[in-house]
Specification:
Number of helices of chain A: 12
Largest interface: A-B, 27 and 31 residues
Helix content of chain B: 25-40%
Order of helices and strands of chain A: HHHHEEHHHHHHHH
Strand content of chain A: under 5%
Number of strands of chain A: 2
Helix content of chain A: over 70%
CATH topology of the largest domain in chain B: Rossmann fold
Shape of chain B: globular
Radius of gyration of chain B: 27 Å
Strand content of chain B: 15-25%
CATH class of one domain in chain A: Mainly Alpha
CATH architecture of one domain in chain A: Orthogonal Bundle
Radius of gyration of chain A: 24 Å
Low-confidence stretches of chain A: 91-98
CATH superfamily of one domain in chain A: MetI-like
Oligomer: heterodimer
Strand order of the largest sheet of chain A: 1-2
CATH class of the largest domain in chain B: Alpha Beta
CATH superfamily of the largest domain in chain B: P-loop containing nucleotide triphosphate hydrolases
Structural class of chain B: alpha/beta
Number of strands of chain B: 22
CATH topology of one domain in chain A: MetI-like fold
Distance between the termini of chain B: 63 Å
Chain lengths: 326, 607
């Protein structure tokens, strides 16, 4: 019952957030310079034709009206069609306005549906790697504040945070793929292609996780119930595994929810470098081509995912610590 | 008690690694089966270190520098980690911080099962669970089977301490170390926990080392008392002998400074019957808190319920009650930090709630407040003089030279050296800080001073000094004091009239003598019975208080709030709520028994 009311409240809040984000993106896209119809129709198209297409597509209506029309479609599960991408593959941007080879334009939902699983796989592997790295380095650090494992954790996170992801991606590709041939790097042809970009993302994620884990574990170890555990006859292992880590994981979880937005940013760069066919690459191309419907669709989907992940994180945190209330 | 002692401590010394000065020096004692041994000492005397050393639980930098702690003939200080953990089944410990002792993210019952499983792995999960529930029931935790699954934050301090006693006793230990277990609890709850521990030694065959900083509490619990001073045992006597003839200077001091309630020599002041300066007329205040597990629901906490009383000019008026009874909420209403949402509070005939702007500022000069926490209530980076001067500046009184003169004069009056004027409050003692607070309140020459637990953070000697200061100030300025306190001994010493609060209501208003010698409400009697004192008690907790805790202010019971804990409750108390009734001489109590007392008189008159 408690969980249901929690979900109801949070999902209602989440819908408001997604709506506001969509409105913001929608407005911004329409006030920035650059006419998408010009890109679609080609540089040589006459002004009258451009105006005609734009009016037909509703692009000359006031922004609120365009937005409400758009949201009306979104509610019915229709994110619209890409301005520039045909359903059959190659981009049409810049070709002649009366190009007869151009077929039906691609559905935004389909484009996202193809790339999102790839990105979720990348993000999932990256988060898993980051958690393993943080646990291996952060837990010993948190258990020995001020001693060498703590300092090691500090140095490792300092080094990790100083590595730019594009540089690390290129260096690792050169080393592991080109020189040693251990891992594939460019494009996608199987799960192994995920590992290298995921590792680069994990290195980007882990410094903050390591610092948080070390800090929260060290402070939990100062709590009276940890000390009292010993006199109650619990072994140190049991105290750490059952109680200290359980309590220390709450701030870590909350951080993961926030870090997820950072991950989306990282995905853009990393997918571009590794030419990984995910949502990030799609976003970059959509922006370069001023593909309004695609950008909007991506914005709605990512903000919905962001909201969903944060609800899940908060739910998990309340399960661990019943004192929390969201 | 000729049996072999369970615990034999010999020449135990504890020090800090690399420091020659010992924390404990050559402590020796025996503990017989089923014995309760009391150990008392001032803070810093080494009590807690001793309590930890005898369960082999010293943490760095503390190290045992000599001696032995033999449990059933084996020196536990020499046991390895694993062997010691096995021995924890026989040696239990309960500390002074019940709310911090268990993992807050796991339910209480399973944590006790976990402990039992750790020290006695042969007991199956189901058996262990059954045993824990039986014991929770035995320490009188209501509906133990449900409470088993509740989290530590859902337990009150008193219930948590009971749960930890279960945690300690669940493995049937041979002895139990109880380190200041009653210190964080309210007096009535502490009295119940103490009673429980005495019973359990008999039924569980457990010996107890009862460590306390309060002599009366230790005497309540134990027969033999050991006095610790600066890490040494300075005295060891039966409790009656110890109180009658303390041999060591520290013990003598302790006995002499223990407040007396009924045998004191203080002649009761005749309360002045001046004009009422403060009239509380049916004041109520509720707070709304978000209800868990609802979409947007709120629960109502009725913190102050229909409170009515007058405070007369020049009077010392006391408001007593235990934590959560609403006394601090009432303080916020009296000082007009908040407005009541029902009823009125009149100050010199003016309804406080109607004041605003300039009038409110002017009113602030009439009523001033001194708070409990001497550290949190002073800004750490403001000079002492500027702090005391601030109210004058706010009210725009005098130029800077006149203000400075007044501040210096006020500092002298409250016993602060004027040299402190330009200094920061860093390093000042709690007593000096409270003097700053008093000076800051007094500088506006208020007529009423509200003292919210002002003295509870201070030690006995400092309390005496400040009380003397309050008397001088009252004589000189004609002040009216309102003391809000949980300390009955303090109230006995200072107040002319006392209002007793329970669950947001005033259940009794009596003059000092009447309250302490002939209380009108059963709750007042229960409070009196629970005061830790060395005197022969007028009231015994056993007769005055049933087990149980104050009800939750969110779900107020129908009828009298105290009925659930009251030994005198009868059917009517559970359906109807009594109001304050006169019991002669302006004393009032909200109890149907008062009415019954009065009834025969009425019948006689009719006959």
């Amino acid at each position: 019952m408690e969980i249901l009311s929690f979900l109801a409240r949070r999902i209602a809040q989440g819908l408001v957030i997604v709506f506001l984000v969509s409105g913001l993106i929608f407005t911004l896209l329409r006030v920035v310079p650059g006419d998408p119809v010009r890109l679609m129709a080609g540089g040589m198209a006459p002004e009258a034709l451009i105006n005609e297409i734009a009016t037909k597509m509703g692009l000359r209506d006031p922004i609120p009206i365009q937005f409400m029309r758009y949201m009306g479609h979104v509610v019915r599960g229709d994110l619209g069609e890409s301005f520039v991408r045909p359903a059959n593959g190659a981009s049409t941007g810049g070709s002649s306005f009366d190009d007869s080879t151009r077929g039906a334009r691609a559905k935004v939902l389909d484009l996202i549906g193809e790339t999102l699983p790839m990105t979720l796989q990348l993000a999932g592997v990256a988060v898993a790697m980051a958690l393993v790295i943080s646990a291996l380095i952060g837990i010993p650090g948190g258990l020995a504040p001020g001693r060498w494992p703590d300092r090691l954790a500090f140095y490792v996170s300092s080094v990790f945070i100083s590595l730019p992801n594009f540089w690390l991606g290129i260096v690792l590709t050169l080393l592991l793929s080109v020189k040693l041939g251990w891992l594939p790097a460019i494009g996608y042809g199987g799960f192994a292609y995920t590992l290298l970009p995921a590792f680069v993302l994990a290195v980007e994620l882990s410094p903050v996780l390591i610092r948080t884990l070390t800090g929260s574990l060290a402070s939990i170890m100062q709590e009276p119930f940890i000390a009292v555990g010993a006199v109650r006859g619990l072994s140190r292992r049991r105290i750490i595994a059952n109680h200290a880590l359980r309590n220390a994981s709450v701030p870590l979880l909350n951080l993961l929810g926030v870090q997820f937005s950072g991950l989306l940013g990282g995905v853009l760069i990393v997918e571009y470098i590794f030419d990984y066919p995910g949502l990030g690459l799609l976003t970059i191309n959509a922006v370069l081509q001023r593909d309004f419907p695609l950008i909007q669709g991506i914005a709605i989907v990512t903000s919905a995912i962001f909201v969903f992940i944060n609800i899940a994180v908060d739910l998990a945190a309340t399960m661990i610590d019943p004192r929390l209330e969201y | 008690m000729s049996a072999e002692p369970i615990l034999r401590v010999r020449d135990l010394s504890v020090g800090i690694a690399g420091n020659a000065r010992p924390i404990l020096a050559d402590v020796s004692f025996d503990l017989a089966p089923r014995e309760i041994l009391g150990i008392i000492g001032a803070s810093g005397s080494g009590k807690t270190v001793l309590s930890r050393a005898i369960v082999n639980w010293l943490e760095a930098p503390l190290v045992v520098t000599g001696g032995s702690v033999a449990f059933k003939g084996r020196d536990i200080l020499k046991l390895s980690g694993g062997a010691m953990r096995a021995t924890r089944r026989e040696i239990a410990y309960v500390g002074a911080n019940p709310m911090g002792a268990l993992d807050p993210t796991l339910p209480v019952g399973p944590q006790i099962v976990e402990k039992l499983h750790a020290v006695a792995p042969e007991i199956g999960r189901e058996d262990a669970k059954r045993r824990v529930i039986t014991l929770l029931d035995a320490v009188r935790i209501p509906s133990a089977a449900t409470r088993f699954h509740d989290f530590p934050s859902q337990f009150s301090g008193g219930m948590m301490q009971r749960a930890l006693i279960v945690d300690a006793l669940v493995s049937n230990p041979a002895f139990l170390v109880a380190d200041n277990v009653t210190q964080p609890l309210d007096v009535t709850v502490a009295a119940q926990v103490l009673r429980l521990m005495r019973e359990l030694t008999v039924s569980f065959d457990t010996a107890i080392v009862f460590i306390s900083s309060s002599l009366p509490t230790a005497c309540d619990a134990a027969n033999m008392i050991l006095v610790l001073d600066e890490g040494r045992v300075v005295e060891r006597q039966q409790k009656d002998a110890l109180v009658a003839n303390p041999t060591h200077a520290y013990t003598a001091d302790l006995v002499a400074n223990t407040p007396k309630i009924w045998t004191g020599t203080t002649p009761p002041r005749t309360p002045p019957v001046g004009e009422p300066v403060l009239s509380v007329r049916g004041a109520s205040r509720s707070y709304h808190v978000r209800k868990r597990g609802s979409f947007a629901g709120t629960s109502e906490v009725r913190a102050v319920r229909n409170v009515t009383f007058d405070v007369h000019a020049g009077e010392n008026f006391g408001i007593v009650g235990e934590s959560g009874c609403g006394k601090s909420s009432l303080m916020r209403l009296l000082s007009r930090l908040e407005r009541p949402d029902g009823g009125q509070i009149l100050c010199e005939g003016v309804d406080m709630a109607t004041l605003s702007g300039r009038d409110l500022l002017a009113f602030r000069r009439t009523v001033q407040l001194v708070l409990q926490d001497p550290f949190g209530s002073l800004p750490p980076r403001t000079a002492v003089g500027a702090m005391i001067e601030a109210p004058l500046r706010i009210h725009g009184l005098g130029d800077s030279k006149a203000r400075r003169e007044r501040v210096v004069a006020m500092m002298r009056e409250v016993g602060l050296s004027p040299e402190l004027y330009d200094q920061l409050p860093l390093g000042l003692s709690a007593g000096q800080r409270q003097r700053i607070n008093v000076a800051r309140a007094m500088i506006l020459e208020p007529r009423i001073l509200i003292m919210d637990e002002t003295l509870s953070a201070l030690d006995q000697a400092e309390q005496f000094k400040l009380l003397a200061l309050f008397e001088t100030l009252q004589a000189k300025h004609g002040l009216t004091y309102i003391f809000i306190s949980h300390d009955m001994a303090l109230v006995r010493r200072t107040c002319d009239r006392v209002a007793v609060m329970y669950l947001g209501e005033v259940v009794e208003i009596s003059r000092n003598e009447r309250l302490f010698f002939d209380p009108g409400h059963p709750y007042s009697r229960a409070l009196l019975s629970a005061i830790p004192t060395l005197e022969e008690k007028r009231y015994r907790t056993e007769d005055c208080l049933l087990d149980g805790e104050p009800p939750n202010p969110i779900d107020l019971p129908v009828g009298c709030g105290f009925a659930g804990r009251c030994p005198n409750a009868f059917d009517r108390c559970r359906v109807e709520s009594p109001v304050l009734m006169a019991r002669g001489n302006r004393d009032l109590a909200a109890c149907f028994l008062v009415e019954r007392e009065a009834a025969p008189v009425l019948e006689e008159a009719l006959a």
